[in-house]
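Problem 12. The chain below contains 243 residues. Write out its predicted structure in token notation.
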Amino acid sequence: MAVSRYVVTATWDDAPHLTMDMRDSLWASIPPYQRDARSKGIPQLGSGAIYQVSEDDVKVSDFEIPTHWPRAFGMDTGWEWTAAVWGAWDRDVDVLYIYSVYKRGQVEPPVHAEAVKARGEWIRGVGDAAAINAYDGRSFMQIYGDLGIDVELPDKAVEAGIQRVWERLSAGKLKVFASCGPWFDEYRLYRRDERGRIVKEHDHLQDATRYLVVSGLDRARTKPVPKPYNPTQAFHGGSGWMA
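Solution.
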């Protein structure tokens, strides 16, 4: 019987144009679960932790965040769990610090909205729901917008988003405050199964982190400073007594 198909694999060793420096650079930029597939031609993702970066390399002691660092939040909503992460961005060195998290299940949106606003009503964010929220028959955007939350939909591309988060983690450009215990609880469990699929359990804070990294930084801003009160302008208007 004639063979109708066959598989050929190639490794980096079969690519003479790749120098050692190029290989080292490529290796550092590839998530661990993709390294065998990329470097050895093995056609599978494999199982295990998605972000194989030591927790100790991610965790930092809490500190007072400088006022000139812009902030934003990422949010993932649902009835079983709603989660959000808040980040402060040191733009000088391009390091994002997750400094606060929220995770609660089976309560109505107004409860979540109050928790979001308590961390700063001026902070803008990105977020999404797994499906149309049944609360009063309205969509996620309308629900939280009506509750006073400034939130927009994020880019939800999963693998591309995971790659962006991985790049920050591996480069030391994503750090998480030690006080964010629930985030690390999920980080330890965030994994792929034996077929390379993401295990969709206990991952809401990780999804919120992905939204923040991919889309939230575009919305990050510093706390608005109120203009000083000028009684003359308040009485006469903005252009003098003849205004």
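Discussion. The beta strands are 48-49, 59-60, 71-77, 82-90, 95-104, 125-129, 151-152, 174-177, 191-192. Students who got a different answer should revisit the alignment rule from Section 12.3.
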